[in-house]
Specification:
Elements (H helix, E strand, L loop, with lengths): L10 H23 L1 H27 L3 H12 L5 E9 L2 E9 H9 L2 H9 L1 H9 L3 E4 L11 E7 L3
Antiparallel strand pairs: 1-2, 2-4, 3-4
Length: 159
Amino acid sequence: MTDNRDIEISHLERRKIEGRVLIPLLQELAAKFGKSAMLEVLGATIDRLATEDGATWAKTHGRSTASLRNVAEKVWAGGGALDVQIVGESDDHLDFNVTGCRYAEFYKQLGHPEIGYHIHCKRDFAMVGGFNSELELSRDQTIMQGAPCCDFRFRKAAP
């Protein structure tokens, strides 16, 4: 008999499972308490989980921008979940564009890209705090919100 706790699933499959559970729950919360309250609770929950994920990835991969590139390419983009194009990299920054996103495709197929943005995309900012508090993320656009690409720009924070 196989112990299911040892079965590895991709990051994308994990997010799909979470989304299928969270969307109906979030819809019920919004109906009962209002959209604003639902988004507030969702934001706080996702921020906490993302910070924890960032800390876990830092322990596993290291805290450098090169380590973050490894997380982006192996974890987030693993199994073809993202098409990542590195546009700049040094010891103090990592710049990449995501030109294809199966996470966005999933939420759009479900008809909930706005919820997908709150569940998936917004978590990146809290994640970087858990990964390395000396890094900052700027991102002006996401595929989830209809842009042609997501523009990730990680920089060492000013001292």
